[in-house]
Write a structure and sequence with these properties.
By secondary structure, this protein is α/β, with parallel strands linked by helices. The strands form two sheets. The chain has a six-stranded parallel β-sheet, with helices on both faces. A five-stranded antiparallel β-sheet has the order 9-8-10-7-11. Helix 22 links the parallel strand 4 and strand 5. Helix 4 packs parallel to helix 12, helix 15 runs antiparallel to helix 16 and helix 16 packs antiparallel against helix 18. The chain is elongated, with a radius of gyration of 29 Å. The chain starts with a helix and ends with a strand.
Length: 635
């Protein structure tokens, strides 16, 4: 391997992560930037030629990567998520496929001029949506749970079905070339489905038993599951070509829905691996595109795209959602989101090469037409889906709220203060007495452990983007922080120390990886805050102005106030921490905990100053702090 090859491989990784970072900063789907980057370094600049770089290993690499992505996605599919909507999903991945297939093949034949045989193949390839595009898009669009769950199920289940239909169409074309019959094609399709389902069920049961019985050391679990995915995919394909994708999908669904199988670490590992593979795949496949072939399509490519977006998808959703409880707004959003991704690109590239080798006329048009649809759906829907969801009112609110673990008086006081400032909160605890009092105070609550399996399925986290552990014990706070750090990020999972333990160092100090971010200040502890509240303390909010900034606020209140949160006019409230490197600005609100009597002392001091000013100038003194609004929130 020469140095140029090493640079290219490293460059793909760097560009992929840079695209992901830009997407995160701009809050747009990463696929959009990955496609543009692939086109830029491939056909535009000519720096990357995937066929020359990978050689004959290109398509095996793509196939194994797609297998891992499908397996990771299928692990997260839970039957309870679509309870009541099972028929919608069944129609989308069943009879609804025929609608997309029919409309697409007719459009390809009459608009582009493909033969009926190639139109049949192209229509089969285009029925897929896929987790490689649906997952990242949903993270940005954030539709309501019902829509998101339906789209995830459709995207993951339909990928192997679409691949099988492409195999069926290819076999049909080959059978026609060799004077074969229709029965031969149906027989091959049935064999492929049976092989994939059998391999997936056997592998899922075997891996599930190994994990459930703890027959592996913890550090071997992730690698063993990954190796099993590769093995199942390869063995299934060895028995019958193109059955591997169905096998790994069935395997993932089986494991994801089986009780007692510990999958948290496996899912976290597979998510990271899938992110890397997905990012690299989009760049590699976009770099293989030929602009001359795209330009040769002219207006015909966009016309086929329009037929798929405006005819095929709405008809499919209309049929699939008929008689369901979905609202018309939810149906419209379902009808708008159907981007094509990696599986469509990989399958079309594979069969285009095979058909060209067989000398099928017009086969060279299938790949550029496929990429036209991929680019069109990804760009158009990435740019508009969030706005469409907001316009229809079927998007989750921005994640600016707080999940508060604990229902103690401290947790209730903090939650009430935030709620009074219109910050979404939700308390979660197994303390029935605390939860009852919180509910009576009008706070949204969940009665149960945040670490339970039920919470994983039923704890409503819509609009939540941060976690605060405000319980009275360090151990549970640390455990809850570690649990939710995977979901919100380690920088958005905080805990309030109980303060009952002496500071430790050296070999007795918990490693930084497992230490939660400390809330409020160095000397803030649960029992200190509880003591202040019990003695009559209160949480008050103060609005900063030009005349009364944060430095004035701190100087005015001295050491009596403990700042808890800063609320910018827009965006998420920020908890103060000992390491906070930001300063509240004009227009921000500061929530602080004041001990009992602090307000009375300040009022008396202001009254004395006012009387002194009155005696000096003969007029009334000021009655409030330089245009600052201060009021009690929780007493």
């Amino acid at each position: 391997m020469n140095e140029n090859t090493v640079l290219l491989l490293a460059g793909i990784g760097v560009i992929a992560m840079f695209c992901q970072w830009i997407a995160w900063r701009l809050r747009l789907p990463a696929i959009l930037f990955l496609l543009l980057a692939g086109l830029a370094v491939g056909p535009l600049a000519g720096w990357l030629d995937p066929d020359a770089l990978f050689g004959h290993l290109l398509f095996p690499f793509i196939s194994l990567s797609v297998a891992v992505i499908l397996f990771e996605g299928s692990l997260t599919l839970r039957f309870h998520e679509i309870r009541g909507l099972e028929r919608v999903v069944q129609r989308l991945v069943g009879a609804g496929i025929l609608i997309t297939w029919t409309v697409t093949l007719v459009a390809a034949h009459f608009i582009v001029g493909l033969s009926w045989e190639l139109s049949l193949l192209f229509g089969a390839i285009m029925v897929v949506t896929g987790p490689t595009v649906i997952g990242p898009l949903l993270r940005t669009v954030r539709p309501v749970a019902r829509v998101a769950n339906i789209l995830r199920w459709e995207g993951i289940v339909i990928d192997p079905i679409g691949a099988l239909l492409a195999v069926l169409s290819y076999e049909f074309i080959v059978a026609l070339l060799h004077s074969g019959g229709f029965l031969h094609t149906v027989f091959v399709f049935g064999e492929t489905v049976a092989t994939g389902v059998a391999a997936g069920l056997v592998a899922g049961f075997a891996v599930g038993e190994v994990l459930r019985r703890n027959w592996l050391a913890d550090y071997l679990v992730n690698v063993t599951v990954l190796a099993s995915v590769f093995a199942v995919f390869a063995v299934s394909n060895a028995f019958l070509n193109e059955s591997g994708l169905l096998a790994v999908t069935i395997m993932g669904i089986w494991l994801g829905n089986r009780q007692g199988v510990p999958l948290e670490d496996v899912i976290a590992f597979k998510e990271t691996l899938s992110l890397m593979l997905l990012s690299a795949l989009f760049i590699i496949l976009a770099a293989r595109m030929n602009f001359d072939e795209l330009r040769a399509l002219g207006w015909r490519g966009p016309a086929v795209l329009a037929a798929m977006l405006l005819v095929a998808r709405p008809l499919k959703v209309l049929f699939s959602a008929w008689g369901s409880s979905l609202s018309w707004r939810e149906r419209v959003l379902l009808a708008w989101i159907a981007p094509r991704g990696i599986v469509a690109a990989a399958v079309s590239a594979l069969f285009t090469i095979k058909l060209q080798n067989l000398g099928v006329a017009g086969a060279h048009q299938v790949l550029p037409l496929t990429f036209m649809i991929i680019i069109g759906t990804v760009v158009l829907q990435s740019a508009t889906a969030r706005q469409v969801a907001l316009m229809l009112g079927v998007a989750e609110p921005d994640p600016v709220g707080f999940l508060i673990v604990g229902a103690s008086p401290v947790a209730q006081a903090v939650a009430k203060a935030l709620q009074d400032e219109r910050v979404p909160v939700r308390l979660c605890s197994s303390d029935w007495d605390g939860i009852s009092k919180a509910r009576m105070a009008g706070l949204p609550v969940y009665y149960g452990s945040p670490l339970s399996e039920d919470a994983r399925h039923n704890l409503d986290l819509a609009g939540v983007g941060c976690m605060l552990a405000l319980g009275p014990t360090d151990d549970f706070n640390a455990l809850a922080t570690s649990w939710f750090a995977d979901q919100y990020g380690r920088g958005k999972a905080y805990a309030l120390p109980d303060g009952r333990r002496q500071p430790v160092a050296g070999k007795h100090k918990v490693a930084a990886l497992h230490r939660p971010t400390t809330l409020f200040s160095e000397d803030a502890t649960y029992w200190k805050l509880l003591n202040i509240l019990v003695q009559g303390g209160a949480i008050r909010t103060t609005t900063l102005t030009d005349e009364f900034g944060y430095s004035d606020y701190r100087a005015s209140h001295g050491g009596e106030a403990m700042p808890l949160f800063a609320l910018p006019p827009k965006g998420q409230a920020r908890p103060f921490t000992p390491d906070s490197d930001w300063v509240p600005e004009k227009g921000w609100k500061v929530l602080s905990l004041f001990p009992a009597g602090a307000q009375k002392a300040r009022t008396e001091a202001r009254r004395a100053d006012a009387e002194s000013d009155h005696r000096q100038v003969g007029g009334p003194g000021p009655e409030r702090e330089s245009g600052v609004e201060t009021r009690d929130l929780v007493a």
